[in-house]
Amino acid sequence: MSQIIVIKVGGNATNHLTNGFFEQLHAWRKAGKQILIVHGGGPQISEWSNQLDLPVNKINGIRVTSQQTLKVTQAVLLGLVQPALCSQLSAHGLSVIGMNATGQAVAFADYLDQAVYGEVGSVTAINEAYIKHALSAGIGVCAPLAATHEGNYLNVNGDVAAAAIARLLGAEKLYLVTDVPGVMVNSQVIDQLSLQKANQLFEDEVIKSGMKPKIKAAFDALKHGVKEVEITNQLQHPGTNLSVDQLAV
């Protein structure tokens, strides 16, 4: 079984990581696990876009990304969010590799739907040799940016990117760390979520906006070999669990 754990940390969550988060990373490293963190930065990108008078528009939780918004996205993710997250990890005694700073692409993508979303990609492949080499040295940290065959970069929804990278790496588990304790229905966390229940919640519009692509990405990962996905705000506390057993339920 793979010893790789992929963790997606949302833009809001990067500012509120607890000591428990870093303690869990230490425990996993001690147990021989390899860890890849995919970080978002949505709130920060929206804030900077507003300051620059760029439109902030999302369709089905996916950010519509013009050429100008892509430049802001790259600047915020690689110039602000990733260095800050790497500094936090380092300050807690963890070896860390900021993977986008090396000039090598972590993932490759085609356009999701350029007419609708602009410069947004769908991950088609990963730089597996580079990722595994980096993870052998420390905790990898990467932004959800993927290169086209022409060498241009596209913005990828962070949850979708993390799920794609997890399945292509053959990760044993995917954690989607967000700013809520799990999938919420009537102010309560659902501890287990089946595909059937998720589709019903989508249809009833109980789940929408940013949580929708998160759950869809989670089930996509499960369909393609990741055994378990956890949606939570703390690694050490169970939130909403999705497992392969729940695909057919």
TrEMBL record:
Reaction(s) catalysed (UniProt annotation): N-acetyl-L-glutamate + ATP = N-acetyl-L-glutamyl 5-phosphate + ADP
Chain residues that bind substrate: 41-42, 63, 155
| Site label Transition state stabilizer, positions | 8, 214
Its BP terms in the Gene Ontology are: L-arginine biosynthetic process via ornithine
Q: Report keywords, A-Z.
A: Amino-acid biosynthesis, Arginine biosynthesis, ATP-binding, Cytoplasm, Kinase, Nucleotide-binding, Transferase
Q: Name one GO cellular component term.
A: cytoplasm
- The reply on keyword Cytoplasm is yes
* Superkingdom of origin: Bacteria
Task: Provide the protein's localization.
Answer: Cytoplasm
* Enzyme Commission code: 2.7.2.8
One Pfam annotation, family name? Answer: AA_kinase
- The main enzyme category here is transferase
Occurrences of domain Aspartate/glutamate/uridylate kinase (ranges):
4-233
Tell me if Cell membrane is a UniProt keyword of this record: no
Pathway annotation: Amino-acid biosynthesis; L-arginine biosynthesis; N(2)-acetyl-L-ornithine from L-glutamate: step 2/4
Q: Which family does it belong to?
A: Belongs to the acetylglutamate kinase family. ArgB subfamily.
Give the protein's function: Catalyzes the ATP-dependent phosphorylation of N-acetyl-L-glutamate.
Q: What is this protein called?
A: Acetylglutamate kinase
The organism that produces this protein has a lineage beginning with: Bacteria, Bacillati, Bacillota, Bacilli, Lactobacillales
